[in-house]
Amino acid sequence: MNTYSCILILGSLQLLQVAPLAAFAVSGWLISVLPLIITNMGTTTPETAFSIVKRAAIFVIDGVNHLFWPAVCVNCRETISEMDKNLCGHCWDQLLCCAGGDYCRRCGRDASVFGLLGGRCPDCQGKEIHFDRIARSGVYSQSLQQMILAFKSSRTELDSVLSLLANSALEGSDFFSEIELLVPVPLHWSRRLGRGYNQSQLLARKLKHPRARISTDLVRVRRTKAQPAMASPTARARNVAGAFAVRRRHNFTGRRICLVDDIKTTGATLNECAKVLKHAGASRVFALVLAVAGQNVN
Ligand SMILES: [Zn+2]
Ligand SMILES: [Zn+2]
Distance from the CA of 158 to the center of ligand 1, in angstroms? Predict the structure, then answer.
């Protein structure tokens, strides 16, 4: 058999996905038979033998998986090690440039803690904000912006990385322990049908919280224009006014809620959602976003 034939057979095996089945079968055999053989050799107890063989089987499965389907960076598709948490080193460096940083806990804009007056930054002084506090993962620029745009354009596998940032922001917020319900900002049904999913809901599902559960009882009842096309904060607020409602059998009364969204620009959408939730009886409404955009928009 020549080299070409070998490559052809190996390629066919990969196509048929035989490798993981073979690894599974071999591992099953190893786990069931080898402990007995080792024990019969009189070198160890059955429990220790079983533990050794189990570790060896896991090693075999990981090795076969990595050989045929190596882990790749979810952003640039470079091959990575299993320990790299879904992104290559370069993409992590790029992404972390846009993450973190001091921000105003009332509106999410970049702000130093020394620049706040009564807990408000210069940008949100005098503004009417219906959500009580906000947590953000970063600013909407460069790598984080590209990744969020890709996430909204069918690259749903990016939720693994974006949720790491979102969980970190949520855990670092001062309202983490208060949250009872996570409410993703809803899309209009027609937009959701077109996209196939609501990115905020995917993100909410990946959030780790000991008690909070997801509620989808906040709905968008009117299709609005895409917010980036709107010129001013006033126009944005007008665009979303009356666009949200709660379902008749909602359970928001007296609850502490955290809205979940991908981007906050002027905050008109989050503000409108928070207003509707409070009108429905929510006692507190917080917000979690992946990124805050438009740092220079007034
Ligand atoms: Zn990468
Ligand atoms: Zn502010």
Answer: 12
